[in-house]
Structure formats: C-alpha cells, structure tokens
Amino acid sequence: MSRIPTPATIADAPAASQSLLEGVKKKFGMVPNIFKLISNSPTALKGHLDLAETLGKGALPPQTRERIALAVAEINGCQYCLSAHTYTGKNLAKLDDAEITANRSGRSNDLKADAAVHFAALVTRSRGQVNETDIAAVKAAGYDDGQLLEIVQHVALNTWTNYVNEVFKTEIDFPRVNLRNAA
C-alpha cells in the first residue's frame, strides 16, 4: 500500500490531473499506478509527462531508452520501475530476455547501445562524477554531444521515478520482477 493516496480512477484524481491521466490512458490503454500517484500534484504529473514526451522525440531509439531505464532501476533498487520497464522493454521495445538481463547489469548485447547503457549506469552509480575517459568511450561508440545530454536526462528522469516509487511505495501493477540486490 502506498504512503500517499493513489486515486483509484481518473475521476478520483485532482481535477487538473484528469485530462493528463486521460492522455496516459489513451497512450498505454490503462493508467499505471505511478501516474495515478503522481497525479496528486498536477504540476509534478505535467512536468513528468512533458519531459518524457520530449525525450521520446530525441535522438536515442526507444530500445536504448528502455535499456537505460532498466539499468537505472536496478541500480537504484526500484522494483516498481524494474517491473514496469521489463514489461515495456519486452512488449513495446521488443527486447529479449538476454538483453534485459544485460541491461539490468548496466550493459547491452548491442555494441553501440552498450556504450550508452554502461555510461548511464556509471552516471547513476557515481552520481554524475564521470571523467573524460568515460565520455570519450561513449563518443567513440558513435554518440554525439546532444545524445550524451539525452542519456544524462534519461538517467535523471528514471532516477526521479525510482525515487517517487520508493519514497511513496507505489503498488506494483505490472508483472513483478525482483531486484537482484534488494536495496
């Protein structure tokens, strides 16, 4: 049970959040609990949705974005996000089990994506304290400065959702995936 109310339906959410939740429902076919919980603050919900939508239009492919989300969730110990992104990774990004396993370890079986996921994991673990060699490795794999910034923004967005879910104990509404090392 979450630590703050999770509206049961869109109609139970604050009025300013209801149209935003309708958009989530249209996009996903349902409203996952994380969005219902965040809807307690229409401002937080709009900010989250706006950033996620904008990053979705960026240069990183959807598969790489999911790979980063899996790595960050595992590192940050967020079972909700790990469960959600395992589901979306398999069903939307079409990642196979071997790839998801690699992503959870901060790696990828795809050579180019591996550099991005490894860098995202490094940024997460080091709280941004990376060095020139770390940046050079990602650039050597073919990522430009703009894509490096997007990788860091994906780390930040996913860390924020990890923290929301951990602070408020969002009820998992995806097939449950256990963390390797429970935080």
Question: Any overview of this molecule?
Answer:
- The structure is a single chain.
- This protein is 66% helix and 0% strand.
- By secondary structure, it is mainly alpha-helical.
- It has helices at 15-28, 33-38, 42-56, 62-76, 79-91, 97-104, 111-126, 132-140, 145-168.
- The protein starts with 14 loop residues before the first helix and ends in a 15-residue tail after the last helix.
- It is globular, with a radius of gyration of 16 Å.
Order of helices and strands: HHHHHHHHH
Regions with little confidence, pLDDT below 50 for 5+ residues: none
Report mean pLDDT, rounded to a whole number. 96
Amino-to-carboxy terminus distance: 18 Å
Beta-strand content estimate = under 5%
Going by helix content, strand content and strand pairing, the class is mainly alpha
Radius of gyration of CA atoms, rounded to a whole number: 16 Å
Number of strands: 0
Shape: globular
Instruction: Estimate the helix proportion, in percent.
Output: 55-70%
Largest sheet: none
Helix segment count?
9
